[in-house]
Structures are given as structure tokens and as C-alpha cells.
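Notes to self, Molybdenum ABC transporter ATP-binding protein:
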Amino acid sequence: MTTAQTPPPGPSAPLAAVLHDGHGIAEPVLKAFVERLQARGVRVRGLLQDSAVDTLPGAEAGSACQRHMELVDVQNGQRYLISQALGKGSQACCLDAAGVAAASVVLRRALHEQPELIVANRFGKIEIEGSGLRQEIAAAAAAGIPLLTAVDQRFLPEWQAFCGGLAVQLPPEVQALEQWWQQQARPDVHAQAQACGPEAA
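result:
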């Protein structure tokens, strides 16, 4: 006896993730794609990550993470610091969950504005644990608003469980994102999106 399986989502799925295998791979692709759409007058809202090469002020040599990380509002350029200086020898992640929580207001505002596209910088460890931008990503999917994010290959199983297998997976290439975006103009896509709301209930 065979068990019926849900077919993989097609390229028109309104929830999409750029898969990558390390820091600094997805960010420039997302940034270039968002800038391309904005130049065409597309209403894009959300957050992109900017990880500076300089050391986080206050970070001590030998700590696990010294990168200066910020989330940037793609509409107005407002920046939210999401990294924190850790003590010498610390092996903990320097991501500041409070900073991410502060930045999440950008996505909540976007949900109210109903833009053509919402971008969330990533679905990562804190989203898997139930915080970060998890609820905002779920709400956008439930509302049928096309949403684009980035997912590390390590977290692919958790991402698929979160979205119920209803998200399309894209390589970190601007052209691949462009092809996905062109599908969003189809009139039937937004009708499909109503069933793509993970954790919407």
C-alpha cells in the first residue's frame, strides 16, 4: 500500500526561499533583486541584512562572532542593529534576538500596507525556535502576499516543516528570482496563496 504524497510546489508558489550554504551568499542576491524591482516601480517592503566586514564595536578577540550585523528597511533605509558584543572566549551566537524583534515592526507594517512583495532577510535558527520573524512570515503567507526569504541548507527540513512543503526553493541567482517573480503576476497565484499560510490557524 502506498501513501499519497503532496506534490512539490510549482514555480508560481507565492512563498519562496533562496537556499544557500553559508554567510554572505544570499544577501547580495536579495539586495540586487530588490533594487531591480524597486527601479521598476514595484512596491517592495521588508528587511534585508547588511553584515559589515568590520568588527562589532565592543567585541573581544576570541569570541565566536564579531560581525557587525544590521537589518535594513528596504523602504526607507532605517537600520536595526541585530548583533551584540560578547565576552572573550564566548562561543555563543552574537545575534541579538531583541534587535530582530524591534525590526519585525517593519514586516508587520508591510502586512498592513499589502505591498506587491515582502522580503524577510532569512528564516534561521531563532525562527525555528519560535521567535524572530516567524510569525510575520506566516502571516504574509496566510494573507497571500508574495514573500521571499533566505534559508541555510542546514535548516531546510525545519523550513519545509514550517511551510508545509508549500514554498518554492530557489538558487542564489538573481535570474532565478526574476523568473519566480514573473509567475506572481498570474491571476491564479493569489488564489493559491490562501492555502499557503503556515501556522495561520
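- The helical segments are 26-39, 97-103, 105-113, 125-128, 134-143, 156-163, 174-183, 189-193.
- Residues 1-7, 59-64, 191-196 have pLDDT under 50 and may be disordered.
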